[in-house]
Specification:
Bound molecules: guanosine-5'-diphosphate, magnesium ion
Cofactor: Mg(2+)
InterPro entries: NDK-like_dom, NDK-like_dom_sf
Pfam family, one: NDK
Enzyme class: transferase
GO molecular function, one term: nucleoside diphosphate kinase activity
Helix content: 40-55%
CATH class: Alpha Beta
Distance between the termini: 10 Å
Length: 194
């Protein structure tokens, strides 16, 4: 029987996770929590795929721009001097380009994770976007100290080891996009499903 909050979510071990030799360590953390890996593949995406993976709507792009602007403000950096603009949407588009470079720089691992409240639990195990703020015990908090101040000054995306869907809508879009109509695998985990 499926639990009412049995969900699927999309997880990706990003190039820095792969290059740091953390594939096993990362997957282990989801499995030990009682979540189930139901699809898994190594792949090397191109820019076009990353462009379709991240939302293109103005709201999402401006939100990323706002985050970057907040860091510049905190550290008293003039965005116009560094990036040539102080418009949140324009800056969001620049960060999106940095994401293309980051995520096409080496192979990644794409995974579908299934379980109770999978979207929220996977995000919790992953930790917040900015590794320097992430608690120990989370993947980002245990294996990275990257910060937006450093990443922005080096004109690159924050390297935070994994991507995980933030909402059920994102999960649906990302699973469909990366796995197309290939069905996830079904099996019963000892001690979890029976
Ligand atoms: P996530 O869902 O936790 O991965 O974070 P978001 O969806 O907000 O952002 C997508 C990705 O963009 C993040 O994982 C980072 O790699 C990158 N990113 C987000 N905010 C910033 C920022 O302020 N500066 C830089 N350089 N990169 C950022
Ligand atoms: Mg996100």
């Amino acid at each position: 029987m499926n639990h009412p909050r049995e969900e699927k979510t999309f997880l990706m071990i990003k190039p820095d996770g792969v290059r740091k030799g953390l594939i096993g360590e990362i997957i282990k953390r989801f499995e030990q929590r009682g979540l189930k890996i139901v699809a898994l593949e190594m792949f090397h995406p191109d820019k076009k795929q990353i462009d379709e993976h991240y939302p293109k709507d103005k709201k999402w792009i401006s939100r990323i721009g706002d985050k970057t602007l907040a860091t510049y403000q905190k550290y008293n950096i003039d965005p116009k001097k560094v990036l040539g603009t102080n418009n949140n949407h324009e800056i969001g588009k620049i960060v999106r380009k940095w994401l293309f470079e980051y995520l096409t720089s080496a192979p990644s691992v794409k995974i579908i994770v299934q379980g109770i409240h999978a979207v929220d639990v996977v995000r919790k195990i992953t930790g917040p976007t900015m590794p320097y703020l992430a608690d120990m015990g989370t993947i980002r908090g245990d294996f990275s100290i990257d910060s937006p101040a450093l990443a922005n000054s080096e004109k690159r995306a924050i390297m935070n080891l994994v991507h995980a869907s933030e909402t059920q809508e994102e999960a649906l879009h990302e699973i469909k996009f990366w796995f197309d109509d290939r069905s996830p695998f079904g099996y019963k985990r000892f001690g979890v499903d029976e």
